[in-house]
């Protein structure tokens, strides 16, 4: 039998296996670095949601002040009026009296994607909203009336 040290490729299988493992680790590290860089870039590119600064009752509705303009959706459903705001803020609720003398309850609650503002009364409500910039802030005026 020959001496194993005389063969050229006596340990080639161990070298090949370690090269394969090193190659897989290198590609895994590249994938991980690419994923982390993508997360960081995505965080930089996507804006933070607007922040609710203040809520006050106004004539026949509410005045909401934000640090910047939020995206919103309005809807009427079974006599109530609601807004979905893509913003962050604390939950709040209250009651207001319309010009007609009717009481309207309102609630602002955190929802899946932002805040949900709902107006509820004994009779069906109609709502409208208007937003405008005021200096460095954005103000949303929500008015409700009885149908």
TrEMBL record:
The chain crosses the membrane at residues 26-45. This is Uncharacterized protein. Keywords: Membrane, Transmembrane, Transmembrane helix.
């Amino acid at each position: 039998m020959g001496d194993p040290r005389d063969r050229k490729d006596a340990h080639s299988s161990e070298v090949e296996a370690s090269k394969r493992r090193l190659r897989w680790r290198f590609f895994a590290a590249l994938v991980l670095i690419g994923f982390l860089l993508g997360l960081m870039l995505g965080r930089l590119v996507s804006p933070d949601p607007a922040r609710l600064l203040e809520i006050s009752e106004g004539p026949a509705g509410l005045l909401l002040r934000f640090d910047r303009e939020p995206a919103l959706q309005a809807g009427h459903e079974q006599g109530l009026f609601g807004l979905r705001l893509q913003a962050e803020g604390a939950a709040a609720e209250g009651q207001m009296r319309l010009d007609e003398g009717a009481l309207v309850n309102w609630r602002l609650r955190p929802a899946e994607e932002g805040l949900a503002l709902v107006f509820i009364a004994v009779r069906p409500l109609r709502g409208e909203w208007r937003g405008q910039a005021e200096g460095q802030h954005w103000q949303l005026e929500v008015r409700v009336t009885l149908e």
